[in-house]
Amino acid sequence: MAIAILLLLFFSIPFSESKLTKDYYKQTCPDFQKIVRDTASQKQAAQPTTAAGTLRLFVHDCLVEGCDGSVLIASNHLNKAERDAEINESLAGDGFEVVVRAKTALELTCPGIVSCADILAEATRDLVTMVGGPFYSVRLGRKDGQVSLASKVEGNLPRANQTVDELIKFFAARGFTIEEMVALTGGHTIGFSHCKEFTDRLFHYSKTTPTDPEINPKYAEALKMTCGNYTTNPAMAAFNDVITPGKFDNMYYQNLKRGLGLLASDHALAKDPRTKPFVELYSTDQAEFFKAFSHAMEKLGHHEIKTGHQGEVRRSFTRLIELFYYYPPMSQSMALPILFLLFLAIPLSESKLSIDYYKKTCPDFESIVRDTVTSKQIASPTTAAGTLRLFFHDCMVEGCDASILISSNYVNTAERDADINQSLSADAFDLVARAKTALELSCPGIVSCSDILTLATRNLVTMVGGPFYKVRLGRKDGQVSKASLVEGNLPRSNQTLDDMIKFFGTKGFTLQEMVALSGAHTIGFAHCKEFADRIFNYNKTTPTDPDMYPNYAQGLKKICADYKTNIAMSAFNDVITPGKFDNMYYQNLKRGLGLLASDHVLVKDPRTRPFVELYSTDQGAFFKAFAHAMEKLSHHGVKTGRKGEVRHSRTSFGRKSAWSGIAFRESRKEITPPNTCEIFPINYKPWSIFVPDLGASSLRTPLMEAEREAYTVRGTC
Ligand SMILES: *[C@@H]1O[C@H](CO)[C@@H](O)[C@H](O)[C@H]1NC(C)=O
Ligand SMILES: *[C@@H]1O[C@H](CO)[C@@H](O)[C@H](O)[C@H]1NC(C)=O
Ligand SMILES: *[C@@H]1O[C@H](CO)[C@@H](O)[C@H](O)[C@H]1NC(C)=O
Ligand SMILES: *[C@@H]1O[C@H](CO)[C@@H](O)[C@H](O)[C@H]1NC(C)=O
Ligand SMILES: *[C@@H]1O[C@H](CO)[C@@H](O)[C@H](O)[C@H]1NC(C)=O
Ligand SMILES: *[C@@H]1O[C@H](CO)[C@@H](O)[C@H](O)[C@H]1NC(C)=O
């Protein structure tokens, strides 16, 4: 039944009021499209329900308070966010993951530029197209919202049990016509629904008839079997389009006419005279459906968007949470003029390193390291802190030459087996080995392990919220690694400030650079023995350092009570935002929340205190100083040209030994993948990290929350 009203097409509705544009990121992030597309296609290939999940997430986000990425915000202690509203079972983890992965990759390419809302809009279109649906243009420039409330969800999403009247009213209130409503519902061609959304149709249709007589009987039978136990198994779901569930096509409308509509609200569309003509049209003419769907999606993508100053480009969620932490009072701030002696003038030009060292010989270098780093950090959130530590350790001991990656052998104890080695993370070793393996397949024998470690460190710092800085390349790997060279070449947590200043001075770092580098403790953690003296043996009369915030000291005492036997026990250096790279470390120092004696001394001594004051109040100044100090550190003692090698595998070590027992060692060597940065497989134990209970019960939960936030959301979307 073709109807004239259909020809009233809606292409005349202008989007021009909107401030979005197609080439919004053209200058600022030219790889935006490519990165989102690659991420989406990888994820879709691995997990075919991603398209449906992401489409659902997008619709949910846009209908509740506009397309502003607010559905991606996690709940916290005081606020239940959109994604935790009761209807949330329909939100697939896969959709969240696509956005988080793309955001992570984008933050490395063009930090702070692309909003989560734009990523979600673009990824949804890509996925729709990928599974057979239409291509429509996605305008960009959305900003992310800062508010996400579960209470805003109810009433802002259509429900499966609504009547057509209610649905029409619902969509009309948001500016959508009936035709647009029917077209958008066609998204169910790839969706699925949980049993509770349609069990009334199967088991409680009416008092006399348990099952809706208009459902195809065989279909009803199958659904009853699937959903027989839905109250005990609420995750059970059925495809909305039972015939071609993975394909974006017009089968959904054809199904409705055959009694194969799943939800009551689907089926009603084929019955109501206001919506039936559109169902008829779309079921026979897929091109019409695609046209209408494209239009409706573009329109939905503009729903109550935030642009300009109405929103932000979200970098992490912690902003929403920080408000709820308990802060001990800050001591008086004291700004000093010496801070303006900035060091940006120091030239790094003596070094022979260059930004585009691998441009010709290994053009995929950056993207391979980026992808490896992204997967590793997502799988194991302590990677960032561990890698930063490894990098620091490597550079301080005999220069940035990846000598830290060399294993010990029979005749030599290597750097990594010095007694301070508990602070070295297996994740970081694993990361470098993985990147090296991938690079050896792409451009064998070209890229040094030390360049990989340097770039991976920068990427991870940026990924968890820290500054982006330039990484010059061309380091060669060292061939010598001796545990005996470690002592005296790393700062210790019990050093006096004089010793620290002297130590950094001999390595060529100023006082200010030393304070900035210490800021890396914003994501690190330390084993109990590094600070046990502060809590148990401060001096003869006073067991605990009186400068330490009492509840904090108490919490630390509890977790470290048996640190001598449980040597893996550790605490975050930044107890407030342990997973986020920010200036909280310096704020903590002023509140007695510094962990190590060498942290606390920075705020006590008049020589370093001004820098602590500056960085605690001005994160921009800290980021600038940190970025500079890291660039400088990454040039420390580098080997270039013939002074080093591009390490392949370290067979040059240990070959001499020919005694008994070596057979075992040799065979271990053989099973190690060739061309990695390691000789022997790493069998480091994973760390156990504990967040101390700060005493007051109101404190416990937010701190746990901090951990959950930082570690599940990982500072991105
Ligand atoms: C849904 O929200 C509840 C809290 O209301 C939460 O415990 C649960 O994990 C959420 N489910 C999903 C799938 O996100
Ligand atoms: C529709 O379903 C929701 C949630 O399942 C329920 O709260 C509401 O009462 C239902 N409405 C009707 C009219 O059945
Ligand atoms: C429902 O649960 C019962 C008991 O757990 C089990 O025996 C039965 O097979 C289940 N039915 C379906 C359809 O999964
Ligand atoms: C640290 O080095 C020692 C050898 O000095 C080694 O036995 C131990 O396994 C290393 N610890 C870790 C955590 O790797
Ligand atoms: C500092 O700690 C190291 C290792 O724990 C120890 O060998 C050294 O004696 C300590 N120095 C001081 C001054 O306490
Ligand atoms: C121990 O430290 C406290 C606090 O700093 C101080 O008052 C006390 O005099 C010290 N005692 C000794 C024996 O040094």
Salient structural properties:
calcium, hydrogen peroxide, Peroxidase, domain 2, elongated, single chain, mainly alpha, 5 strands, about 725 residues, 4 domains, Peroxidase, domain 1, disordered N terminus, about 40% helix, secreted, binds 2-acetamido-2-deoxy-beta-D-glucopyranose, disordered C terminus
Written overview of the protein:
- Pfam families: peroxidase.
- Keywords: Calcium, Disulfide bond, Heme, Hydrogen peroxide, Iron, Metal-binding, Oxidoreductase, Peroxidase, Secreted, Signal.
- Belongs to the peroxidase family. Ascorbate peroxidase subfamily.
- One of its GO terms (molecular function) is metal ion binding.
- The protein has helices at residues 32-46, 50-63, 93-109, 116-130, 164-173, 178-185, 199-203, 217-227, 251-257, 264-271, 276-284, 286-300, 318-322, 365-379, 383-396, 426-442, 449-463, 497-506, 511-518, 532-536, 550-559, 584-590, 597-604, 609-617, 619-633, 662-671, 697-713, and strands at residues 192-194, 237-239, 525-527, 569-572, 688-690.
- By secondary structure, the chain is mainly alpha-helical.
- It folds into 4 domains: 17-154 and 304-310, Peroxidase, domain 1, CATH 1.10.520; 164-297, Orthogonal Bundle (Peroxidase, domain 2); 349-487 and 637-671, Orthogonal Bundle (Peroxidase, domain 1); 497-629 and 688-713, Orthogonal Bundle (Peroxidase, domain 2).
- Strands 3-4-5 form a 3-stranded mixed beta sheet, with no helix packed on it. The chain has a two-stranded antiparallel ribbon with strand order 1-2.
- Helix 1 crosses helix 4 (116-130), helix 2 (50-63) packs across helix 4 (116-130) and helix 15 (383-396) packs across helix 17 (449-463).
- One 2-acetamido-2-deoxy-beta-D-glucopyranose binds next to loops.
